[in-house]
Amino acid sequence: MLECWAVPTRAKSRTVKVPSIVVAAAEDVIAEFLRAYAAGDGHFGDEALEIATASKAMASGLVYLFGHGVSQDYVQAYMWLELGALRLPPGIDYDEAVNARDVVATRMTPLQIDEAQRLAREWKPKPEKAP
Questions:
Q1: What value, to the nearest 5°, has the Cα angle with vertex 48 and ends 45 and 50?
Q2: Which 3 state secondary structure label does DSSP give 124?
Q3: What is the pLDDT of residues 2-54, one digit of tens each?
Q4: Residue 44 three-state SS
Q5: Which three-class secondary structure state does DSSP give residue 49?
C-alpha cells in the first residue's frame, strides 16, 4: 500500500514527502490530508499548531499545502522551486522539485514565468551573521 502512494518503506522518517497526487488534488482533499497529518504528527502549542517531521521534503510540502486558501504568489513560489531544483543532483528529489515547479507554472502567464526565472537567476543568499 505504501508503495502505491510513493511512500518509502525504509528510512521513511527522513525521506517521506507529501504525495504528488495530494499536491495536485482539490482543496477538500488537501484539507483532509492536512487534518489527518496534523492529527497524527501535530498538536496545538501555546499559540499555533505545531507539526514535527524529520523530513525536509515533508516540511516544505506541508508549508506549501498550508498556503492553500491564502493569497498565492506564484512568481515567488516558482522562483524558490527553481532555486531548489538547481541545487539538487539528478534523482527523485530533483524530479519532485521540477514537477512542483511545473505545477505552479500551469497557473502563471508567460510573463510571470519570465519574471520568476529572472528572480531565480539574480537571487543571492544573504551573508551569514558572525556568531
A1: 65
A2: coil
A3: 566 555 566 667 777 888 888 888 888 888 888 888 788 777 666 666 777 77
A4: strand
A5: strand
